[in-house]
Amino acid sequence: MTVSDGDRLHSQLSRFEDMFPGYRTETVEGALVTSPLKPHRARTIRLLWNALEAQMPAEWGFTSDVAVPFDGDNEFCPDLAVIPAVEADEDLSAYPPDLVEFAIEVVSPSRVHNDYEVEDRAYARRGIPHYVIFDPYKAHCVTLWNPGPDGYRGRDTISYGGKVVVETGLGKLTVDTSVLPVDPSVVSP
User: Fold this and answer.
1) What is the pLDDT of residue 10?
2) 29 has a pLDDT exceeding 90
3) Left (φ > 0), alpha (ψ -120 to 50) or beta: where does 99 sit?
4) Stretch (H or E) spanning 43
5) CA distance to 9, 44, 48, 49, 181, per residue, from 104 (Å)
């Protein structure tokens, strides 16, 4: 499944691309939401991308901060989304949620509610098999699986410091959380 030119134009976010430099912009529950980009977030995304890419089957690829329109009120931009490589190679500005096999968000202070609650329910309702939240402000990650109409039925919270293993339809994916940055306000993980 690909996003047609008409669907790309549908992306509400495309008109805001250059208006908010240094901010990530999404449409969440009908509201335009911007959050500042911080170095820990970008570093975490880079480290996750590198670690996971080495473990992924060749037919799968990544998008980062690319629009995934869910409905008229929700157009999310996952920090990392695993989609078929052939689709990622199209280099589009938006992809349908049905392509997403695995979504990752890295928490920003202004997006806690969205990452932990709104996107949890939305991703699950669309049947995205796995959702993982990495939180540099709590020094932990939350793995979610078994999507249902009200959210994910499976949930584990794992403190940073060791390896996190997520069993997916793509195979076992492992992340060493001991190398992920933690906000200086966190005394110890």
Assistant:
1) 43
2) no
3) alpha
4) helix 39-53
5) 25, 11, 9, 10, 16
pTM of the model: 0.80
Q: How would residue 7 be classed by pLDDT, with cut points 50, 70 and 90?
A: very low
- Give me the count of residues in the chain: 189
Residue 174 forms beta bridges with which residues? 165
- Which whole-number Å values give the CA distances from 149 to 28, 115, 146, 189, in the listed order? 18, 17, 10, 32
Determine the 3-state secondary structure of 149 from DSSP: coil
Q: What is the rounded distance in angstroms from the CA atom of residue 5 to the CA atom of residue 32? A: 23
Q: What is the average pLDDT across 52-71?
A: 91
Kindly tell me the burial class for residue 135, based on how many C-beta atoms sit within 10 Å of its own C-beta (0-12, 13-18, 19 or more). buried
Helix, strand, or coil here: 59? coil
Q: Are strands 102-106 and 130-135 parallel, antiparallel or unpaired?
A: parallel
> In 10 A of CB 49, how many CB atoms?
15
For residue 162, which of 137, 141, 187, 184 has the smallest C-alpha distance? 141
